[in-house]
């Protein structure tokens, strides 16, 4: 095989000093070189197949160009577009993403973080954290994605849960619903507690109180199924259920079908996230769209900022959401005579 | 903060020599230590929060405990369970997964592989490769996932495309179909060409020939939509369409709906992969289930074998598939009088 290209070869081809080439090829110093020159150097490096020995650089600088991305489970459809956004933003800056799943298990998360820390990573993006803090020291650059801490001491990117849930409640009330229940997400997560509070606030703004709340121990279909069974087993009468997220809503669909209740004719259901394929469910799910890809992309951008300047204050970014009306919410028209059209044709 | 724990601290707590502790904590030498002793050492390391300095080890051994996982796009629902299987198998061996998306773009793939190679990775799992080979030298440990090369010179884990497509064709013929078209996947991929050949073989076994074949330039919904429009624009009359995979089948659903053709009443459609949520489509898709998670898991196991013994011959693993009958295939009963039951009740 050919001798591998060196930084000097790259500098020569790009007609710059070796030090300039080195700066341009290191994501952490690239902004010290003019964009046009940096582009020429990157092009030259590519043409020569130049590959910086990152292991050597890592040992010298004590960090690598690799970021740990820790999520509960990639098979939850919310995460692939978030992770894709993270990876795209990292790649643009010459960084790579080391991916790990925790299944929401604290021990698995501890192990994973310890193994990742052994790699001298540049920082972490965590989608797993609880409200009470992150299991990493203050010496580590961290951005939370789709989560935040109560103390607000960690940088984060989230969607506007409050605005989303209030929009869902307003829609239900407009459609005539007043007996509305909630399947709340886990209350040790920021999204679980923020959506629950927004549900109470939203009802309160219309002078209503909840017709039943059940708490799910996970943002999962199974937890949504179980919570729906508990909600309705108590003899609670609701015409609508606001689920903590889409997965919980799908579990609710399953439980309603088993109980012989039709959605939306008997019970309207709403979700949260607009994850892929909920538009293809029966009925298509009315939900709140969060900008999954942008959340991941912005989280990676924030992390790169923090890596460049670890002393900067932790920003908290809230991205807007959008109400997506489909077919899982019916109008309640109490004054209609029952079966008004029966017998006419 | 406390001084970080050293390998000596770990050895002392586990009552072994430092060399034994070191072997037990290195995935590549762990099997030289008895499982019980290794477990005790790992437990001691965890208790002390010991984190091996992998960057230093990497420079010494010229490889890390990190594997590159390269896929087209994580947002294609086939990949999350595969990647999750990869990550689980790697984690069990103390390895981590560096994830990258290529969008099927050759230049993006070259860049990504060059950047990853700069990290002295232990090996690669590629879901992106074409039939003509892999863009990595023979000095690199590689396993292909859901893909293989014509030459068979690279280790791979795939599902049995041939058996799956033949089962679909048999089902259609049993249901009375004889005018069957195919929306073939890209012919520079092994799955595209293997399924196309199996389609021809399957028809031939029943003395049939294809009623039209269109080739998709990607395994995507858009490509499936376009190919369906081309197939039917030519005035081809089919009662069933075998799509190259589920994404292509979803594009076919969209095109049929636009053309005012009902599925399955006018045209039956089949997919391939049984990706998440095709059971919730309208109609629920008849398809072939591949063991996504197992494919990923086995690919990582194969790669770890090759890392341990790079001179071993490249294994090719084919995993069995399962026909999943849902509602997208109708019976064609040419001899039934039309609307036979009309007027009887």
UniProtKB/TrEMBL annotation, chains A, B:
Superkingdom, natural source: Bacteria
Keywords: DNA-binding, Transcription, Transcription regulation
Every HTH lacI-type domain range: 5-61
SUPFAM superfamilies linked to this entry: lambda repressor-like DNA-binding domains, Periplasmic binding protein-like I
Keyword Iron: no
GO MF term list: DNA-binding transcription factor activity; transcription cis-regulatory region binding
Entry keyword annotation includes Flavoprotein: no
InterPro entries linked: HTH_LacI, LacI/GalR-like_sensor, Lambda_DNA-bd_dom_sf, Peripla_BP_I
Name of the molecule in the record: LacI family transcriptional regulator
């Amino acid at each position: 095989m050919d001798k591998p290209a060196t930084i000097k070869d790259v500098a020569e081809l790009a007609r710059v000093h070796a030090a300039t080439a080195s700066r341009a090829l290191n994501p952490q110093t690239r902004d010290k070189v003019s964009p046009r020159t940096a582009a020429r150097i990157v092009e030259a490096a590519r043409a020569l197949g130049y590959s910086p020995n990152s292991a050597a650089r890592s040992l010298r600088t004590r960090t690598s160009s690799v970021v740990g991305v820790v999520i509960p489970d990639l098979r939850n459809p919310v995460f692939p577009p978030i992770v894709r956004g993270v990876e795209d933003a990292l790649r643009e800056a010459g960084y790579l993403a080391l991916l790990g799943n925790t299944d929401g298990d604290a021990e698995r998360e501890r192990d994973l973080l310890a193994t990742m820390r052994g790699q001298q990573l540049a920082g972490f993006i965590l989608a797993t954290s609880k409200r009470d803090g992150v299991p990493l020291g203050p010496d580590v650059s961290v951005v939370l994605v789709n989560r935040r801490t109560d103390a607000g001491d960690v940088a984060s990117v989230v969607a506007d849960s409050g605005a989303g849930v209030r929009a869902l409640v307003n829609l239900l009330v407009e459609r005539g619903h007043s007996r509305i229940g909630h399947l709340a997400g886990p209350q040790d997560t920021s999204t679980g507690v923020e959506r629950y509070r927004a549900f109470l606030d939203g009802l309160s703004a219309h002078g209503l109180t909840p017709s039943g709340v059940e708490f799910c121990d996970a943002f999962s279909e199974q937890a949504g199924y179980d919570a729906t069974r508990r909600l309705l087993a108590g003899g609670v009468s609701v015409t609508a259920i606001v689920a903590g997220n889409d997965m919980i809503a799908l579990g609710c669909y399953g439980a309603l079908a088993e109980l012989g209740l039709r959605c939306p004719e008997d019970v309207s259901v709403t979700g949260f996230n607009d994850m892929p394929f909920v538009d293809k469910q029966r009925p298509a799910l009315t939900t709140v769209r969060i900008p999954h890809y942008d959340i991941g992309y912005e989280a990676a951008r924030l992390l790169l900022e923090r890596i460049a300047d670890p002393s900067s204050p932790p920003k908290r970014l809230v991205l807007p959401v959008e109400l997506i009306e489909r077919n899982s919410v019916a109008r309640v028209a109490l004054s209609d005579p029952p079966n008004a059209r029966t017998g006419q044709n």
